[in-house]
Amino acid sequence: MPFFFIFQMSNFAAISKLGVQAAQSGNMYLAEKYFRQAAELEGEPPEAIFNLCRLLHMQGKNQNVIDTFKKKIAKKDYPHVHPQLLLIASQSAIRCGNKTLAIDALTTLHIRHPENSETSILLSTLQIEAGRLNEATQTVKTTMRLSGRGASLLTNLAICEIEMGSIEQAERIHQEIIKNNPTEFLAYYNYGKMLATIGEISSAKKLFQKCLDINPNAPEALDAINQIEPKGTIFEEFYAKIASGDHREAANLLRDSVHNNNMNNYLSCICHLKTNYRSQFGEIKHFSPKHMVQKWDLSLDESIDLNSLYHLVKNNESLIKDRPGKPTIKGFQTYEILKNSTHHSAELLCAKIKILAREYCKEQNIPSIKFNESMKAELSGWGVILNIGGHQKLHTHPESILSGVIYLKTSLETESEEKECGNIIFPSSEALSISPYQGLMILFPSYLPHLTIPTIQEDERVCIAFNVNYKAN
């Protein structure tokens, strides 16, 4: 056996040398071939996997990096893996959307080198995106104790605080960042974005103006100001005309407006026009809730565990009352719970939503929704709990293509067809009112305006709302 081992090591060195020479000469195909041979040798040293993954990573073959890493290295062995290989694997995983692998690899790096700010920032950002706010907070605080209160670490800590409802603490953190970095654009910009989210428009605008003092004509700051103080009143004028019953002039306002910069608002307005005026803007049905809102009863699907999903929402660490910047009133809402979730019931729900959303897009063929079969669906979702007096204000979802909701727990009050308490309403010239029941899932274009009617009883109404986007593979 010793001779065989020595022979293999010698063989590994020879093959690896050929791989290095091929890479240095620019022949990546041949280099990859040699490195794969070395990695397949029995008893290969760790360098074999590192060389192969590094070469694949350099070529942008991120999925191949992930496949090789997962095939050759078990999770239990991560603590013994070279830090650079863990970093390469995490970077490829992020680019491929495999946040679970990225978090696992970066967590190992963070445990071994808790003082490393770059690792901590990357890891805590992923943990925040996955809704693991307590873990993100602990990651940041651990590194700050060892390496100081850097601006990027503090920014992630502020995000955790506000997402868990600690607005005052988040403000103090942002003020600390500005005090320590008085000439930094991002110090003012990030604080301004937070204040805009919670409705402090005047203070947010002052911070964005400070950004422009530091970096004149910065597009990020200009866009932020336009979002909180939009130019023009075309939509206000439109709704005033609708309220007065003048649909002809309302249609004229829309037709003459430049709508490309706010397509969601533009399409939402069309929904309020009477049928004969809606026809001027496309197929009438594409703006009618009665045609565009589809329903499914997922309580009949054995793969969907409504009880498990209910507890996912109820026990979520990010569940807070009247989440800032959201339409939920007198109710509780979580942070992200579907995107990149490793919760089994959530994964099954996401798979089901993607199937139904794809069928919906093919069937409806909506011109404003750019969709084809090759596109990849991306989901985000959040839990909402409402009881007495709880409701959601009129809103749309401008950040997505399709939106929907699945009801996990309802009551006799919300299920009643005779009363509208707890109903979801789609106001338009062809308004639609839907009485929720456990297992009901609805799907609709994100531009359809909708709201919910307050409940008057203590019983819970629990749901997961979600958005669907598509992007080219």
Description:
The protein is of the alpha+beta class and 473 residues long. It has three domains: 215 residues, Alpha Horseshoe (Serine Threonine Protein Phosphatase 5, Tetratricopeptide repeat), CATH 1.25.40.10; 49 residues, no CATH class; 181 residues, q2cbj1_9rhob like domain (Jelly Rolls), CATH 2.60.120.620. 53% of the residues lie in helices and 14% in strands. The protein is built from 21 helices and ten strands. A seven-stranded antiparallel beta sheet has the order 1-8-5-10-4-3-2.
Would you spell out the secondary-structure blueprint of this structure?
Blueprint: H1 2-24, H2 28-40, H3 46-58, H4 62-72, H5 83-95, H6 99-112, H7 117-129, H8 133-147, H9 151-163, H10 167-180, H11 185-197, H12 201-214, H13 219-228, H14 234-243, H15 247-256, H16 263-270, H17 275-278, H18 289-292, E1 294-297, H19 306-314, E2 320-321, E3 328-336, H20 344-364, E4 376-392, E5 402-409, H21 412-415, E6 424-426, E7 432-434, E8 440-445, E9 451-452, E10 461-471
Antiparallel strand pairs: 1-8, 2-3, 3-4, 4-10, 5-8, 5-10, 6-7, 6-9
